[in-house]
TrEMBL record, chains A, B:
SUPFAM superfamilies: TRAF domain-like
Catalyzed reactions: S-ubiquitinyl-[E2 ubiquitin-conjugating enzyme]-L-cysteine + [acceptor protein]-L-lysine = [E2 ubiquitin-conjugating enzyme]-L-cysteine + N(6)-ubiquitinyl-[acceptor protein]-L-lysine
Disordered as annotated region, ranges: 57-93
UniProt domain Seven-in-absentia protein TRAF-like: residue ranges: 150-244
Annotated EC: 2.3.2.27
Listed GO MF terms: ubiquitin conjugating enzyme binding; ubiquitin protein ligase activity; zinc ion binding
GO BP term (any one): proteasome-mediated ubiquitin-dependent protein catabolic process
TM spans (from-to): none
Name this polypeptide is given: E3 ubiquitin-protein ligase
Pathway: Protein modification; protein ubiquitination
Comment on protein domains: The RING-type zinc finger domain is essential for ubiquitin ligase activity. The SBD domain (substrate-binding domain) mediates the interaction with substrate proteins. It is related to the TRAF family.
Leading EC class: transferase
Amino acid sequence: MLFFTQCFGAVLDLIHLRFQHYKAKRVFSAAGQLVCVVNPTHNLKYVSGRRAVAANAPEQGGCPQRHATHLPRPPRPHPRPPPRPHRPRPQGAPPCTCPLFSCAWEGRLEVVLPHLRQAHRVGVLQGAEIVFLATDVHLPAPADWITVHSCLGHHFLLVLRKQERHQGHPQFFATMMLIGTPSQADGFTYRLELSASHRRLKWEAAPRSVLEGVDAVITDGDCLVLSTPLAQLFADDGGLAIGIAITAAEACSSQAGM
Amino acid sequence: MLFFTQCFGAVLDLIHLRFQHYKAKRVFSAAGQLVCVVNPTHNLKYVSGRRAVAANAPEQGGCPQRHATHLPRPPRPHPRPPPRPHRPRPQGAPPCTCPLFSCAWEGRLEVVLPHLRQAHRVGVLQGAEIVFLATDVHLPAPADWITVHSCLGHHFLLVLRKQERHQGHPQFFATMMLIGTPSQADGFTYRLELSASHRRLKWEAAPRSVLEGVDAVITDGDCLVLSTPLAQLFADDGGLAIGIAITAAEACSSQAGM
């Protein structure tokens, strides 16, 4: 009986996944583009003091496999966390914080990717052009949707964050960060594109280094910002599809490790 | 002596204008594009009751001539106005409100353009591709920058509004509205584009009818939204250059009066 129940659950998951995949393909009709279904990572806890918790994996989220999907855990009531410091850290052997809002991990740049893969089960996608499909965007803030792209000889982190910068008015912030130094990040350009009937929104910029922190990028306004009504105009059945493209900046392509 | 002072003032104005024009051309390098320098219209007064004040012209702003520039009046202290109603009005011979935040005028659709030209000295530009250069974007909210474009057989109104939807956090909202009915507006597409070093932001949508009101468009999120930090990333010496393009939507071009 348990076996049949599990089978039924798996079939339901597959149907749900198939539907979401179809939606993303309908929105971005370019043939051959990968679609990554990304589930939210809720702010289940927040440790205000910075301490190394690299092996701790309390959150569930990310994109462990390209077409895997998970039901998000319901958000627990919690006190509002204090704001993170959002200025870039000193450059001399800098500690790097986890890009997830809910995680207090910090460590060296070289171990950010292992931390994301092991602690948050974030999968690494190959390809410079991908459709990022964030699910359940109607869930309350704060929440993160993240995925890692491996292309052009580097790893890039796409972060979509739902956050209330102004009380009672959640917004979405989308940015691409290089798992590398700021000077390496200057060698690339990324593009985010949302498309719905009669509407299109494109953002193009150089990625920021993951060393600078997501908070600094949001505070600087150096990202794609969507109000909740605008996100609803682009969303389809709780899913927000964002087309992503990464290219090497012309002047710097030779130094970018291509 | 007075004559020489006036001449000197005129020369300074011309130098300032030339500088702004050069900046806009540098940002948008496409040859042959018109540049419209648009000054802010401050919310000097607000009449909460709706009454016809068509002949009244207390505000100074708009783009009276293509390359004219004016010093904006300093904003006077005033109580925060009550929010305007922002739902579309009934379609049966609907009254149309003035798109300027500071003006309480209302009248029929056919007299919106004469009102804007006479009461607010808004000039009409010919051409489907124009660079809209809003000056003094650092001035406090609320403020409007507007201009009218005549192309494809219709008149389009570009509105850039600086407004505090959330206390203490002014934002910029840019939208294109057709001086026509909603069904006529569906026949067109407009594109707004901001560009600065390593950053580009594009918004493409169908214009909304001026009958629906600017407030409804902002509340629906159906416009380009810039936070103050993001606007600062694109601004250059207090000027915000927005490239504008209007096209007839493919399916409706035959009915759009081309």
